[in-house]
Write a structure and sequence with these properties.
mainly alpha
Length: 162
């Protein structure tokens, strides 16, 4: 059985790659999601919950931007140019993982006041919650596709190199 590049990345250099590429981004995003729920249910929530929400959004956005740049340069571009993809599951897994930059980067931009400024407080809260939801979807699609044996969707353990 072969694995996608996504799973290979997480399985290599244990436990560091798992921590750097999965645990840290997901823990930060889940922290935003959980604190977001507390804020949505009680708009008067202040102090530690709002601070944690803001901090996790900022750190998560900037951290994932660095991860995105690193993986784009060291993995996605070389795999594309070299014909190294192992099929659709591989492309979906890595592609959706990298797409996480849009919502996580968006969260950081909202926190910095560079996105959503024309909205009122309620509108910014909705934008923030929407970005959290989008990240959760992209991350889960990446995880599910990443766990597939690439051969299930017609891929190969040994792609032809161009």
């Amino acid at each position: 059985m072969s694995m996608t590049h996504y799973m290979e990345l997480l399985a290599t250099n244990q436990p560091w790659n798992l921590l750097l590429f999965m645990a840290i981004p997901v823990i930060l995003a889940e922290t935003v999601a959980i604190t977001e729920l507390a804020i949505l249910f009680n708009r008067q929530t202040a102090g530690v919950v709002r601070l944690l929400n803001r901090w996790a959004g900022l750190v998560g956005g900037f951290y994932f931007a660095a991860v995105f740049a690193y993986l784009l340069i060291t993995a996605a571009i070389p795999l594309t140019l070299g014909g190294g993809w192992r099929g659709p599951a591989d492309v979906i897994a890595v592609g959706f993982y990298l797409l996480g930059i849009i919502p996580l980067g968006g969260l950081a931009l909202v926190e910095l006041g560079l996105l959503g400024n024309s909205r009122d407080a309620e509108g910014r809260l909705k934008l923030h919650a929407t970005l959290v939801g989008i990240f959760l979807v992209t991350a889960h699609v990446a995880m599910i596709a990443g766990m597939l044996n690439p051969e299930v969707l017609g891929g190969s353990a040994h792609p032809s190199h161009a």
